[in-house]
Each structure stands twice: as C-alpha cells, then as structure tokens.
Amino acid sequence: MAGVAEPRPLGLEEERCNMAIRSPDEFRESLRDNRRVFMNGELVEDVTTHPILKVNTETAAGDFLLTHSEDPAVRDLFVASHPETGEPISRYFLPPHTSEDLEKRLEMIGQSIRLTGGLPFGKDVGTDAMYAIMTTAQRMGKPEYLERAQSYLEHLRKNDLNLCGAITDVKGDRGKPPAQQTHPDYYLHIVDQNKDGIVVRGAKIHITAAPAANDILVLPTRQMRENESEYSVAFAIPANAKGITMVCRPSRGERSPSEFPAGLPVRGLVEAMIIFDDVLVPWERVFMCGEWQFSMLLAYTFATYHRFTAVSYKIPIVELLAGCAVAMAEMNGVERVGHIRAKLVEIAAYVETLKALATAAIKSPVMHGDLAVPNLLITNMGKLHFASHYHEIIKLVQDIAGGIISTMPTYKDWQNEELHKPLEHYLGGSSKYTTEERLRMIALTHRMVASAESAHMEVVTVHGEGSMEAQRMMISVESPFKEYRNLALTAAGVPPRG
Amino acid sequence: MAGVAEPRPLGLEEERCNMAIRSPDEFRESLRDNRRVFMNGELVEDVTTHPILKVNTETAAGDFLLTHSEDPAVRDLFVASHPETGEPISRYFLPPHTSEDLEKRLEMIGQSIRLTGGLPFGKDVGTDAMYAIMTTAQRMGKPEYLERAQSYLEHLRKNDLNLCGAITDVKGDRGKPPAQQTHPDYYLHIVDQNKDGIVVRGAKIHITAAPAANDILVLPTRQMRENESEYSVAFAIPANAKGITMVCRPSRGERSPSEFPAGLPVRGLVEAMIIFDDVLVPWERVFMCGEWQFSMLLAYTFATYHRFTAVSYKIPIVELLAGCAVAMAEMNGVERVGHIRAKLVEIAAYVETLKALATAAIKSPVMHGDLAVPNLLITNMGKLHFASHYHEIIKLVQDIAGGIISTMPTYKDWQNEELHKPLEHYLGGSSKYTTEERLRMIALTHRMVASAESAHMEVVTVHGEGSMEAQRMMISVESPFKEYRNLALTAAGVPPRG
Amino acid sequence: MAGVAEPRPLGLEEERCNMAIRSPDEFRESLRDNRRVFMNGELVEDVTTHPILKVNTETAAGDFLLTHSEDPAVRDLFVASHPETGEPISRYFLPPHTSEDLEKRLEMIGQSIRLTGGLPFGKDVGTDAMYAIMTTAQRMGKPEYLERAQSYLEHLRKNDLNLCGAITDVKGDRGKPPAQQTHPDYYLHIVDQNKDGIVVRGAKIHITAAPAANDILVLPTRQMRENESEYSVAFAIPANAKGITMVCRPSRGERSPSEFPAGLPVRGLVEAMIIFDDVLVPWERVFMCGEWQFSMLLAYTFATYHRFTAVSYKIPIVELLAGCAVAMAEMNGVERVGHIRAKLVEIAAYVETLKALATAAIKSPVMHGDLAVPNLLITNMGKLHFASHYHEIIKLVQDIAGGIISTMPTYKDWQNEELHKPLEHYLGGSSKYTTEERLRMIALTHRMVASAESAHMEVVTVHGEGSMEAQRMMISVESPFKEYRNLALTAAGVPPRG
Amino acid sequence: MAGVAEPRPLGLEEERCNMAIRSPDEFRESLRDNRRVFMNGELVEDVTTHPILKVNTETAAGDFLLTHSEDPAVRDLFVASHPETGEPISRYFLPPHTSEDLEKRLEMIGQSIRLTGGLPFGKDVGTDAMYAIMTTAQRMGKPEYLERAQSYLEHLRKNDLNLCGAITDVKGDRGKPPAQQTHPDYYLHIVDQNKDGIVVRGAKIHITAAPAANDILVLPTRQMRENESEYSVAFAIPANAKGITMVCRPSRGERSPSEFPAGLPVRGLVEAMIIFDDVLVPWERVFMCGEWQFSMLLAYTFATYHRFTAVSYKIPIVELLAGCAVAMAEMNGVERVGHIRAKLVEIAAYVETLKALATAAIKSPVMHGDLAVPNLLITNMGKLHFASHYHEIIKLVQDIAGGIISTMPTYKDWQNEELHKPLEHYLGGSSKYTTEERLRMIALTHRMVASAESAHMEVVTVHGEGSMEAQRMMISVESPFKEYRNLALTAAGVPPRG
Questions:
Q1: Distance between CA atoms of residues A62 and A66, nearest Å
Q2: Terminal alpha carbon distance of chain B
Q3: Non-local CB neighbours of C473 within 8 Å, separated by 6+ positions
Q4: Distance of alpha carbon A354 from alpha carbon A467, whole angstroms
Q5: Under DSSP, is residue C343 helix (H, G, I), strand (E, B) or coil?
C-alpha cells in the first residue's frame, strides 16, 4: 500500500494477494494514513504512538497477533481458508452458515480476550454489520446491493482490514424523530448524490475503537419511517476519507509507576465521536440508499449479531470478575464463610447462565437465506441478562474483596524503603499467598470493579449494543405471546382468535 | 395378574407378553390391589373411584391415554421399541444415551401436559430414579446390583408399570444427622436382613401421585456418612406390599357446580406420606444396602435427572401462566399499556430463559458410562431459575389480571336467572370477547394464581425436587471456581496454585 | 330500631341516645334488615347465620367486642368522647387532627387484629372515605356539602354504624374512559335527579366485608374529566336500600373437622360486588354531584387515608408471617443455620421497614384545614413496599417452613386410632415442641402461606387499596423531582429553570 | 498554639478561650504540624498545599466555613452554646439527648454537603466515636473513664478540633481471630503500659479524611473475646504524635483543564492507612484498656451513631443522583417516556425511603443514660437500604443519562476552535437547554456515576460504616424475633416458651 498518508484507493485489482493475513506491524503501519483524530482538543499525529491511543491500537493489534500465533490451534481458530481460492483469510470474514460457524465466532472472541488480555474490537463488530448488510441485501430485490456487499467482503478478505461499526446517531431531542429536530443533522443523512456516489452529513457517537479501524461501516441507528428515506443509509468508507473527523474520549494509557505490575499488558478501547462533514461515499460502497422499508431488518439483524458478539466478549470478562471474587475470598481467608459462599454461587450462576444462553442461541439459529443469525429472542435475553444483573455482580465482588480495593497503597508506596516493610507486615492475608501477591490481586480487582475503567464498563454494559429497553423491545417482538395466549384460551374453553 | 387384592408377585415369567403397553383401564384395574391408602382419617376403598383420589388416578392415567393415542405422532413419541425384542414399550423405559434421548424426555413431559391437561407424574420420576440407580450400580463394583437393575427395568418394560419416587425422609430435627435423632426412624433404614431380603422401617413424605403408582422406588434423601450405612438403602417395592401405608393430603376433586366450565378436565396430583412398617424387600429389588460411599452419587444423579424432569414439566405450566397474563390483558383492554407490556416481557423472558436453559442442559450432557445425564450445573440453574422467580411471576399475573380473579362471582351466580343479566351487563371487558369468555378466563387464571391449587404449586415450586439451597449447593460443587480463580491469578501476575 | 326488615330511616331525631356504643348483638341484629345478598347463586336469608357469611359477620363484630372490652386499656383505645357532648363514641368517628390521632388509628387497627384474630374491616375504611369527603367538602365552596358530611358523621356516631367503602367500578374495557364504553354503566353514574335526591346506576366490585356493613359509602374510583360529571358522584346509603344487590364470592367458613385446632377463631372477610339498580339517594346523603374538578382530590385523599389503613392492618399480618417463619425454623431445628438466619433477617427487615414507614408517615402529615392526612408520599411508599415484596416474603416463609405445610395429614388422620401413633412418631421435629404442637404450627403456616386464603391474600396485597401502579403514580406526583433537578443543575453550574 | 511542628500538648489550661470556633485558616494552619503523611511513596510536606491532599483539606475546611457563615440560619445550625459556659462551640460537640438533637445532626450533615459541595468529614465521625465512648464509660463502673471522656470533650470544644475515627484493623486472615494470626499486629493492641500511658502497635485502614484530622480517635473494630483484652483498647491521640504514619491513597485533585466547569468546587476525601509504631498514649486519653466485656457495647454504639451519620450524608448525595437523572431525562427530551418515568419513580422511592427511615430512626431513639442513640434497628436498616440498592440506582441513572456520560468530549475539545462549532451543532438535546448546559450536566453525571470517583463511592457505599453483613448481623440481634414467634405460637394454640 503505497503512500499511507493518502486515502486508500477503493479499487481491488492492484492489491497484493499475500496481504490477506496482515502482520501486526502492517496493521499499525496502515493506521498512519493522515486520519483526522482529536483527543483532548489536540490533533493526534500518530495513533500508534500517542500515549493513550497507543493502548487502543495495541488492543486492536491483538487480532493480528492471533492470526500469526505460533500455536497451530490458535492459528486454526483465527485463520480460515477462502471458500473459493483457499487462501488464508481471517475467519471473521467467513459468513456463518451453521450453528458450528456461530460457535466458532463465540470461541474466537472469547479466546481473543483470554490470550491477549483485551478485546481486539474491530472485525467482530465490522462483520456483525457486514452480515446484517448481506442479509438485508438478499431481501431488497436490487441485485447491485448484494454484488457490492460481496465485492466489499472480498476487499476485506484480501486486505485483511480492521473495521469499526458506526451506528448510534447523536439524536438531539430523543423525544422527536429525525425530521422534527431543530436541524436535520442529528441523524446522519444523505445531503446529495451524484454519479460518483452519495454525500453524507451527520455524527455518530460511542464508536468503540474507531481510531484503530481501517474502514468504517455506517448503518442506521434504528428503523426509519416513510418520510425518513434520506436517513435510511448504509455504507463503508475508509477512516481517512475526506471530511471525517474523530473526537476521542481520553481513557487510560500505559500502566503507570504507581500501579502494581500485572500478568497481562494494559488493554483498553477508546470511544470516539465521528463527524461526517459532507463525506463522499462511492456507489460501490453504498449498501442502502433510501430504502426505509428495510431499515428495520438491517437494524435488527445487526443488533442481533452484535448482541451475540457482546455475549461472547462478556463471558471471559465475567469469568475474570468471578475469578477476582474467588481469589480475594481465598486471600482474605473467608472462602468457606456461609454468606461469602452464597455470594460466590450467585456470581457463578450469573456467569454460567450467560454461557448457557449463548449455547442455546447457537443451537437454534434463524436462517436468512444461507446466513445463520443467532436466535433473536435468546440472544437478546442473553444481552439483557448480563446487563441487568451486572451491577449486582459488581456489588458482590466489591463486597467479597473488601474496602481495600479502593484504599490500597500504590506500587510506589510498596517500593518506598521506609514503607515497604510495614506494608508487607500489615497487608498480608491468608498465609497461602504473599503480601505482594495479595496486593497484585487487589490491584487487579480494583481495576475490574473500583476504577475509572470499571465505571466505564458499567456504562458500556448498560448502553453498549443498545440499552436494555432495546432488548426488551426485541423480546416483546420475538416472544410467542399469541401461542401462550392460545394455550390459555384453549384451557379455559374459549376459542382462540387472531 | 390374578387376584388384584393380593400383593403382585415379583417373578416375571408368568406375565403376559402383550401387557407391555397397558390400556388406561388395565392401569386403573391394577390399582385395585388392596393398597392401604388413607385420606382424611379414612381408609380408601378404591383409588380409582374415591372423589378426590380419582382425579389423581385419572391424571396418572393420562400417560396410558397417550401411548394409545390415535395420532401416530403422539404414539411415536410415547411408545418406543424394546432395544432387543423390538416390542412396543413406553419410551420412558429407554435409558437416555444421547442429547437427542434427553430431548425426547423433555418433549414427552411437555406434550403430556399440553395434551392431557396435567402431568401424568409416575414413569418420569420413576425412571429418574431408575437411571440414577443404574449409573450408581455401574460404579459400585458389585455386578449383582447392575443385574438387578437391568432385570427390574425389564420388569417395568414388560408390565408397563407406573411408579413413584420415595426420597424425602421425615427428618425429625433437621439440625441433627440420622444417628443423633431422638429415635432412629426419622430416616428410613434397614432394621433386619435375611435370606429373603431386607426389612426396612421409616416414613417418606411429599410423595407425589403415590396412590397411583404400581411400584415405589425408594432412595436415600441425601448423602450418608460412614456411620449411616443402615440408612444407605435403595430398593423397589409394590405399593400394596405388606407394611406399607399411605396417608394422603386431600386436594381438589372434580369440578364443582360453582366453578365455570373449562376446556380441559380437572387434573391434579395428590401428595402422600408413605409409612414403611418393617417392610420386607426381596433381594432382587435391593439396589443399595449399606454402601454409604455411593449415596452421594445416587442422590446427586437422581436429583439432576429429576430437576431436569421438573424443568420439563414447568415449561408448559409457565407457558400457560404467560398465556393467562396475555389473555387477561387483552380482555381487560390493556395489552398496549406501557407498564403492562413491560410486565408481559418480563414474564416471557422468564419462560424463554427456562426453555433456553433446558436446551443448553441437553446440549452438554455428562456421560456416565453409556447413560447421558443432563448437564448438572445447567439443570440445577434451570430449577433454581424457575423456583427463585416463580412468585414474582405469579405476582405479575395477578397484577395484570386484576382483583376480579379473587372476587369473581361463581358459575351458580352466572346461572341464576335474576343475576345472569346484570352480571353479563357489568362484567364485560374488551369487546373482542363475550362476558362469559372473560369469566371463563378469569376462572382459569384464578385457578392458576389465586386458589388453593396455586398456593400449593408455589410450595411445590420451592420444595419439589429439592429446595433452592439444594440447587445452590450443587451449583457450588459444579461451578468452575478454580478455573475462574486461575484466570484472575494469571491476569494479576500471580502463579495459580492447587 | 323497630322493624329491621324495613329500610332504616335517615332521620336522626328518634334514635336512641344510648345506642352510641352498640353491643355485638345489637350489631348482629342490625344486619337482619332484608338486605339482598347472594352467594353461590342463592339469596342469603340471614348474614349472621349463613355458614360462610357468618365468619364475615363475626369478624366485623370484633369491633363491637373491643368497645365493650373488660380491659380498660382496650376500651380507652377504641372508645372516645364525643368532642361536644362527651358521650362515648367509637374512636374511628373522631377525625384525625394531629400525628397522635393518626397514631391512634394505626394502633386501633393493629390491636383489632391482634386481639380478635382478624380485621374488623368497616369503620376504618368507612372513615377513610368520610374524612376524604370532609377534606373535599371544605374545598368545594358549597357549604351544604360540609353540613351534610358533618350531619352524617353525627349520624354515624349516634348509631355506631358499621360501614363499607364502595370505590372500584367494574370498568369494562380498561383502555377506554367511562364515556366511551359500549354502555354507560361500567362506571357508577347519576341517571336522574329530583327533589328527593339522585338516582344512581352501576356496579362496584371488590367491596370487602360489604354484607356486614350498615351503610355503604360510594366514591368515584378515580379522577373524572370534564365530560364525566355524571360519574363524579359520592354518597352514603343504607345497605338494605331499594335497588341494592350484593353478589358475594364464597370464602371459607368455620374451621372444619379436618383442620387442626388453633388458638384463635376463624376470621375472614367476604368480597362482594354491589349492583346499584337505579337507587334513590336522598340529598342529605349526597356529598358530590357532578363536581368533576374535585374528583381527583377526593380520590387521592381517600386513597391516602385508605393506604395508611392498609399499612396499619398489614403490620400485624406480616408480624404473624414472620412469627410462622421463626417458629417453624425452631420446630425444624434449623434456626441457627446460616441461610435460614439470613432469610429470617430479610423477613424482619421487611416487617420493620413497613413499621418505620408508618412511623414516618405519621410524623409528617399533610394538613387539610384541621384534618391531618398521613404523608402522601410515604404512605404510598409504605403500601408499595409491602405489596411489591410480599410474594418474596411468602416464598421465604414457604422455604423455611418446608414442604410439609402443603402435604401434612389432616386432623382427622391425627385422630384416627391406627394412624395417630405413627404420625406422632414420624412427624416430630425439634424436641422443644411436641409433634402436635408442630402440626398445629404447620397448620397455621399452611393457612398463612399455602392455602386458598393465602392465595387470596396475595391478590388482596397486589390490588387492595389500588394496584402498585396507582402507588407509583402518586409517588410520581408527590416526589420532589424539581428539587432534585435543581440541586443537580446548580451543582453543574446550570441555572435552574421552571 | 506555639510551634505547629511540635506535637500538640494535651494540657488544656494554656489554650486560648476564643479558639472555640476556629476560622478555616486557623484550621489549615493547625495541619502544618509535622504530621507524617505519605502519598504515592513520597512524604508530603504540607497537606494544605499538596495537589491532591489540598482537596481533602479544603473539603474538611468546609465545616469551619459554615461556623463562620454570614447567614445567621447557617451559623445557628452549626454553632451552639456551651451548656455551662454559654460560649460558642461547634454543635457537633453537644451530645444528643433528644430526638430533636439527633435531627439537628441529620440536618447539619445534609446542609454541610448542600452548602459546601462535599462532606466535611471529621467532627461527625469523631463525635460518633466520642458519644459511643461516653455511653460505654457510663457502664464500665470506673469513674475515671467518664471523667477522661468529659475532659476530652471539653478539650475538643475549647480547641474546636477536627477528628477522624480509626476503627478498621487490617485483620490479616479474616478467618482467624486476633490471637491466632501469624503475627499479633493484625489488630491494633497494647504492647506496653507505664506510668505515662499505654504503648500501642498496629495499623488501621480505610481512615477517611485522616490527613485533615487534628486528633485520631481509635476504637476496636469489633467485639473482643476474653483472651483478647490487649486488643480491647480505645483512645484519642494527636495526628502528629510520635510513631504515627499515614499512607494515603491518591484520589483526584483540582479540576483539570479537560473537565467542564461546574457550579461547585471539587470536593473529595482521601483514604488513609494509619500505622501505629509503638505509639505512647497518655492515660488521660485512654478510654478503654483491656475491658473486653465492653468492647461489644462500644463497637455497636459507635456503629449505630456512625451508620446514622452515613444515612445523613447519603441523603444529599442520592438526592443529587436523582437530580442528575431528572435533568438528563429533560435534556434528552425523554422525561415523559413511560419506562423513563418508571425509573425516575424507582429512584425517588429509593431516596425518600431513606429519608423516611432517618425520620423513623430519630423518632424512636434508644436512651443510654442521658445520651440518645438513634434507633439501632432502623438505623441499620437505613444503612442496609442505601447500600443494598445503590448499584441498582447507579444503573438506572446511567441508563437514563445515556452512553454519552462515558464517551463525551472534553472541555479542551469544546474550547478547540475547529471542534467547537460541530460539537455545539451535534451535541444538543432538548431545546430547553443549550448544548453547553447539557455538556455540563453530562460532565456532572459522569462524575457521579461513570468515573473513578463514582466507582470509589460504590465501594464506600458497600464497605463504609461496616459491610452489609454487619448490618444484617445487627438487624438479626435487634429484631423482635421472639415477639413474632410468640404471636404465631399463640395464634396456633401453642403455649409460647422462652
């Protein structure tokens, strides 16, 4: 790819065949492309070296580490063969056709976190969007959409691109639909179109990991109505395209000298607002352009795929939360106390119910043509399960771990010559662990349940992949209420009706 | 079977080959066997005609209706081929070897209720016990146990017997183990043994549907310790064996003239206390005799099979509950009101989570030899799920349905000439239904959530198949706490340990 | 009062002065007045002797027992001095002017239940309505209403009348207001008026204890709108007035021989539907006649007084529930087990929070003129507290008590010669109590949490005094949302606005 | 006070009379006393100027601002007259004798936060300890303890000292009592005593605001047993006494340029671990020295006073939380949406129940001699109420506010010339507020529910003033279980027993 500072050309011909599995360095290099990224009021020169954005980049780079893993089992999980050419491609770029394919996605996401220490968010959300686009394209009755989608998938495979999904509009007054707002830009919309493509304007928020994406996939945030066709738009666009600006929320950078060392590097994702200032999208990357009737199918199918992704990435996170609780109970010497045991059981039931719901969602997928969508009802229940009980679980972990997760001395105190000895003397717990081991576990638990990161994770849990009301709405739509009712009418001796 | 008033002989030779699938009448006839059954202080002459016990008998007889169904799909579900002889036998008597076999059991139990209006409790609980016995027998290292179990299974197949499971001891002071009670009989135990068999004494309570069982399967109620070998006993015995007395709790009888008619007959099961007054059990029916080391395996495996049965029979019940809520919301004209909608979604999520957990339990069974046991952890979570939220769901249904489910006039009021017209005038709801249709649905909902039966069902939900603490204990044992902990230790940079 | 079979005259002059505190027999006698009461399709001849209605009558008669108590402390609580004449009157007929007066009402209701075994529902709900009428009359700007109310209060005092409150209309399609229903009678309304009074038609449901009321107080069930003035009507009427019919739901009668004896007589209230078939109400008993603007004040003030009454009567009931849990834990020998202890603490916190909310509601009343209304916000929170957690508490009591509360043998079994000895042998628990004591406690607990009565009480808890949504609506209206918001705006540096 | 660098003399004679109400500057000056305070491994030179500790100091200084308020109503609340001399003293130093006195404490704490923006933690916790000491001293039968306590109270009054309460020991292996730990120092204990006083060793953790205290009050963390008399010790000691070291957890400092401005200054408290390295405590400041029999009374009475303080300071905090929810709902334009309204009602009920419990605790105090202790049972229920539901409320506020509280741009972005206009364009909400107003409210809400501070507050809510199990234990002790039980036994016809 010549000239990283130039917007990447969309044409596919000249691309190198052996790019299909990029190395982490190739990935990092690809992000030095003149993208316009701000943080804290300043334009970021290089998202791979910026003290905060570097963490985001390296977290995303985890995916490229896995496809180059020396462990064949790992490589086999993350690398698949192109269905036609047989060339190695990222498994994310294989559309799911069966329960087994969905199970692989679940496993990939779980293992990504377990092996790299954080979620390399990108191809997962990107293909959630991509397969929703393909599902919808099959139904729209315009062959060009399906062709474009397939051609774009080929582009992704060949260039091994990292993605982000830009869904949530800024929305303005949420009590009003797009067309009744004080200005028309609160939802991203088409402001012009010409022979080259469409021109779009608007802003998308909560775009996780956006500064590490090569391409941005844009979808409507919700079902659109008849008079909202200008808002019914879906497309892909390189992150460095003209008119695109990202404003990133600062998050934590590398581990500071005050923090206790840990077994895994710092991982974390940045949230961005992406402003589209009259951006030209070439026709070959436009997947919906006014077909409001299909906006619901697109939004719902994306939501389902993406909530399944959310269930997948939450599993290792809540397993780790459970682990903090168990380890802290042991280190405090209370792992056999009745009420502690009861709390550990509650945490385990939370974790294992989530895993069971994932299993059940996989085992009864909905087929759209040859695309397997995880069971809509169960997937939404899975997301609602983890979101609605998450704070309670955080409370239990805080309760078991003890106040020290929020009052502990820093690693600098620990290293201070005068303080080291008394701290070692006084901050011990169960004799099965050293004081330093206990402090390291306290530090991890602090991060998981008592830090800026944990507070952010609470919000992500509530709002990520749609708020709980969004899941309730889909449960309302998908539940067999009429079947329930007819059972009852029949039992009561009342003839069922429509 | 000559002389129904005589205890049934255990020998298999003289039994009729074509008995394998008994008719409902053959089943009813088999219960007229001089069994000693009391209700309300009086000896019951015939459990098939007694005004209350008749309902219990007919509910159990539902199973025999299904195996004789004229619908081939139903018959195929409930009738299987003997694995060796190919003769038709009840499918309950086929031990589960695969996920598919477990799924069949789920389906049989669900369909039993949907088709007959109530649970024909008997072969399900009986084979839960039987397969736990077989699982344990495989491990005990004494070939005679496995032979006896297989021979008894053959006996069940050939005679198409209905069963009950007698597990729960009366327990006395629950703060004390069997051997420290004020008398030794609070847990059923062996008081003697001779060449013919063992002699047992004790009492089992909460034995559902016992008066409709041909044979009783007796298992220890929990893990026994070293000094409790006399309490480590399992066996089968005909319900009319000498020394056996059943004391039954009265429950409702046939529909009274005050009750509105319904679409299904009255169904319900009776709870019995079974007293074993020095009962002789022939050796060929003894499946555990002192091997306390295996009491835990036996108790846990039975508990798991049986909680899976519980999940199976709860599904149609809670679907019907959900149906009452939907129908009442419609009939009251409030099905679109926001808070009603939210409550319906909560009910649906409860029902569908139960179904999803059943699916997940089936999909990841534990194999004991060639016997498939539903996943222990998920099955226990399924039982805990329905039991711990059941009262909340009852509250929601009561809330949606309105106070009238508890204050409605009777069918006799409805039929009274003077009252009929004003009742019809005043008790209408949504115009989609007639007043009588609404009253029939109110009557059904009354039965489901506001009656003696519904209160009993609450208690059954809490205590049936073991209380919630019993499930929590198994979740505590089965959850991967060490794996969780090691994940956390590793992330914290602390070496995992044993 | 000559001629009980005649409608009671409204004139006050000829009434005997010493009637002010009636005896239980005078009360019973007063109900033999040709009232038209149906149960199970049959006209009831005498509500004081009918096998089921007798229980309702005797429960109501409890109030008259208390005013004649030989214990001066009890008499002093229930009997007060007429504020002008000094004559003894029921304390219920003294309007509350202070926190202390409200505290007295709380105490009266609590002690009624503790001393008589059941709630003598009547004067409490009646004066809840009466003081709401007086509060509203003060605001309506028509002196005749206040005069009528005061005159009627004097009538109540002099005749020591028992009352019921008829509030809830049948409502038809709840999605539609009164005027849009398929007929105009789904809400009680004025169909005519003349020099003698108004003529009303409609039906009220869920009227607790109605067959034991001398007079019926009728209020609108909710706020009425401008076009609903015919529905904005409040009045008092004797229960035997022409055109009034009560249809009563059968409930339990006297203790049957199957039931274990108890320490207190059977108490219980009947629910009635009252049909008003063009009933003439004399002007002197009309308290609202079309003034829809005041319907909200009337409905809300009644709701608050009445929910405070509900909190008052729930306290002894939930104390008794808690007592069943404690006693059963002791009798089962598990009162020191960790999870049992935790459940008992949860039950106690439920009970004591209810009591604390009652205290707080009393301590910060709202004054309407010289009438003290319990704090609206806290009273509604109190009702919501007990209703929203009640089923959870029932579950805990069921859990602690054990399945035997639903499977126990009957008193007839216990008395059977053959069964008595084995039952005594096998059904013992902790040696601190005899088997019979344990069985009596099991029987009480059965009644409280596992019977037709307990299921009915669940529904009453949800719907009595308005459903939980009604409380949430009042909490929404009464909470200081604007104050909260202004605190936050100020803290954020944003000027508060209207 | 000459020589702030020297430990402050304990003698009272030479102290200035007009010191009784110190100015904020006098308070700040008093903290420059050579106290040994560490943060992040470095010795802090001056806790009034250190970038982080300054916030802690200024938060504590709020109390001195209030006693010097120009608003007479504020001054009257915070300043009282010395009961004997009539001199002005801090009202905290007046022991509560009545409900009204307790109400004043509630009001003082609430107003402190509302007026200064944060809790000036110090005299509240200090006098919680002081009045627990006095309560215990009255019972111990050794007049010197009461004299010392009174003399020390006089000292506090005359010098207007700020305090901290050092209660929680480091505890080591929590499964073991003090005497069985791997070393004896896991609980603070007496290592020597001589004519001057006692010598103590140990470490106390979670000591809120300690670096801003003049004196430290040390109490046992729990009931001590017979063999734990060396651990049964209570005393006061100046914070700069020889042998005392504080290790402080870094918390946030002043508002950074990235943060949006707010209406109130940054407030916050630091948590410290205090190490006592063989500290000499003069006899006149020793309030318990081995009397283990009274350790429970001391610990429980302190816990009750302090949990009442906690209830008091939580009220304005949760009101502010509620305000964020209301304001964000308005700003997002969703304040009338059904599910949002339901969530606001849930939040309001949480807040108002807390206030009602505080009212009830005040209205039924327990008298220890002439000291009024807030009702133990209700106070503990109040603490448990706010702690057990807090995370749920945080979830609701996060849910209502939207994901933007965690992804919003910084103030520096807002001030950036290129970004300002698009941010203003895109981040507007309801037209009732400007975009900047909305962003300020989002920033406040971020701080309250999505920041390091909010995560810390969750932990404080769980563990501050004792964990929820501690409250459950006291509810278990204080609830009238026997009265409940006797009610039930009586109703069942079983004689109550001991």
A1: 6
A2: 60
A3: none
A4: 17
A5: helix
| pLDDT band for position C5 (cuts 50, 70, 90) | very low
D-proximal residues of C, 308-327, CB under 8 Å: 316, 319-320, 322-327
pLDDT for C498: 78
- What integer pLDDT is reported at residue C243 of this predicted model? 98
* Helices of type H across A364-427: 376-401, 404-407, 411-415, 417-426
d(CA D376, CA D384): 12
Mind telling me how many Å the CA of A334 is from chain C's nearest CA? 15
pLDDT at C14 over 50: no
Q: How many residues does chain A have?
A: 498
Q: Confirm if D377 and D478 have CB atoms less than 8 A apart.
A: yes
Contact A472 B342 (CB under 8 A): yes
**Nearest by Cα to B386 from B359, B360, B348, B353:** B353
Amino acid at D378: I
Distances (CA, A) of C83 to B126, C91, C182, D356: 73, 11, 49, 33
Provide the 3-class DSSP secondary structure of residue D80.
strand
Q: Which two tokens stand for residue A33?
A: 């492309």
Q: Which residues of chain D have pLDDT under 70?
A: 1-19
Nearest CA in chain C to B182: C431
Cβ proximity of D390 and D461 under 8 Å: yes
**Cα angle at D277 between D271 and D278, to 5 degrees?**
135
Q: What is the DSSP letter of D7?
A: P
Which residues does C54 contact at the CB level (< 8 Å), separation at least 6?
Answer: C47, C48, C253, C254
Q: Say what the pLDDT of residue D18 is.
A: 47
Q: Which of A336, A339, A340, A346 to mutate to test the interface with C (most CBs of C within 10 A)?
A: A339
d(CA A29, CA A33) in angstroms, rounded, equals: 8
Instruction: Please indicate if any CB of chain D lies within 8 Å of the CB of C98.
Output: no
Encoded tokens for D344: 């606001």
From B341's Cα to the closest Cα of chain D, the distance in A is 11
Strands C371-373 and A79-81, sheet pairing: unpaired
Given a cut of 50, whether residue A7 has pLDDT beyond it is: no
What digits encode the pLDDT tens for the residues C397-452?
A: 999 999 999 999 999 999 999 999 999 999 999 999 999 999 999 999 999 999 99
Contact B176, C431 (CB under 8 A): no
Neighbours of chain A (3+ CB pairs under 8 A): B, C, D
pTM attached to this predicted model: 0.95
Q: Is A483 exposed, middle or buried (0-12, 13-18, 19+ CB in 10 A)?
A: middle
The nearest CA of chain C is from the CA of D263 a distance in Å of: 4
Residue C6's pLDDT band, with cuts at 50, 70 and 90, is very low
- Tens-digit pLDDT profile for residues D290-313: 999 999 999 999 999 999 999 999
pLDDT tens-digit readout, D345-362: 999 999 999 999 999 999
d(CA B222, CA B225): 10
Phi then psi dihedrals of residue B187, to 5 deg: -120, 140
For D86: left if phi > 0, alpha if psi spans -120 to 50, otherwise beta; the answer is left
Name the CA radius of gyration of chain C, rounded. Answer: 24
Q: A452 and D449: CB-CB below 8 Å? A: no
Helix residue ranges, H only, D6-52: 24-30
Q: Which residue numbers in chain B have pLDDT < 70?
A: 1-19
Gap between the terminal Cα atoms of chain A:
60
- Shortest CA gap D140–chain A (Å): 31
* Tokens (6 digits) for C227: 């076009």
Instruction: Point out the residue among C341, C351, C357 whose CB comes nearest to the CB of D476.
Output: C341
Interface pTM (ipTM) of the complex? 0.95
Q: What is the H or E stretch that residue C237 is in?
A: strand C233-238
Tokens 């990520």 correspond to: A464
Quick one: which of A152, A168, A187 has its CA closest to A281? A152
